[in-house]
DNA sequence: TTTAAATATTGCAATATTTGTATATTTACT
DNA sequence: AGTAAATATACAAATATTGCAATATTTAAA
């Protein structure tokens, strides 16, 4: 049925579903970065960074530009940042909900 | 450092990273649905639907309401649909890119 | 108190992802 | 040609996720 398209979409989300890759994307908000840059920023070893970048590259989420021996990575579609913003908004809502729940539980204990 | 938060975010995206779960969420755009409803809509067996719903429930993406023996599921935060919309926009861009590439390749072959 | 309907959970083999380590590849420089 | 820097890839062990089939649980009604 809608199998292929939804599989495609699922693969896209799968590419985002990793802490290191999310951090990489956050760092790319401020423009392209080299692998060494990211390696420093994330305090990760070179090959791990390269591997995560490969995942993002395969899903076409990032673009790569080579200058000499240096590879510069950037986010292909600025809409991605919008997506991350909406995701952040959802997390905030989530945290507010959790906080309210805690507050409620605390009050229940106090009035007892 | 930012480990826990990004792990949390990654888990959220992981919950979206499955074709069946994406289809379920699309169906929930038009309001709450019972497990049987979804089972029919998706042409999946009951236990698979329940399992995927469990994943969405664990990540607090959907809410569940029970009425008799029937369980009604709905999306907790409408922002989620906004997120899916942005994702859709990204896919469209992506497809346009692919299409243009194909077009270009076709033209190259024709003029040769 | 059986029975049926609706939903949830469990167990497990098959796959897929992650993580760390080692090894390639590419490019520029000497 | 030989070497160093930057990046990429290969591989294997540890984990996690799927996809089914079987089994439980819960609720309402006979």
Beta-strand content of chain A: 5-15%
Number of self-contained structural domains of chain A: 2
What is the structural class of chain A? Answer: alpha+beta
Spell out the helices and strands of chain A N to C.
Answer: HHEHHEEH
Helix proportion range of chain A = 55-70%
State the main characteristics.
alpha+beta, Arc Repressor Mutant, subunit A, 112 residues, homodimer, DNA-binding
Compile the SSE list and pairings.
2 copies of one chain form a homodimer.
Chain A: H1 3-16, H2 19-27, E1 33-34, H3 35-42, H4 46-58, E2 62-67, E3 70-75, H5 79-110
Antiparallel strand pairs in A: 1-3, 2-3
Chain A binds a DNA duplex (30 and 30 nucleotides) through helix 4.
Q: Gist?
A:
The first copy, chain A, has about 110 residues and is of the alpha+beta class. Chain A has helices at about 5-15, 20-25, 35-40, 45-60, 80-110, and strands at about 35, 60-65, 70-75. Chain A binds a DNA duplex (30 and 30 nucleotides) through helix 4.
Can you put this structure into words, describing what you see?
2 copies of one chain form a homodimer. In chain A, a hairpin with a 2-residue loop joins strand 2 (62-67) and strand 3 (70-75). Chain A folds into 2 domains: 1-77, Winged helix-like DNA-binding domain superfamily/Winged helix DNA-binding domain (Arc Repressor Mutant, subunit A, Orthogonal Bundle); 78-112. The N and C termini of chain A lie far apart (56 Å). The first copy, chain A, is of the alpha+beta class and 112 residues long. Chain A has helices spanning 3-16, 19-27, 35-42, 46-58, 79-110, and strands at residues 33-34, 62-67, 70-75. Chain A has 5 helices and 3 strands, in the order H-H-E-H-H-E-E-H. The interface between A and B is medium-sized, with 34 and 34 residues. The structure holds a DNA duplex (30 and 30 nucleotides).
